[in-house]
Design goal:
Blueprint: H1 9-14, H2 30-35, H3 53-61, H4 66-89
Helix pairs in contact: 3-4
Amino acid sequence: MNNTSRTDWARIDAMSDEDIDTSDIPPLSEEFFAKAQLRMPKSPVRVSVQVDPETLAWFQAQGKDAEQQMSVALKIYAEAHKAHSASAAKPA
């Protein structure tokens, strides 16, 4: 898997706010801000998990932040199984 970005970041960095096309973003109303809530992310919990050497090596080979990538993979797995469990629990 190639994670190399093909985005021209130098061009993006050189853009001013006026250069950015925001025409597809609807304006936010006063009602939106009246209902808005601040949601702070939960602090991660540190745990110790045994991982086989091949799996750890694969994550480490993907680049830096192997632990963060493993955390993301676990979250995706859990979310997919929550959705599956919820749909399986519904009576037909």
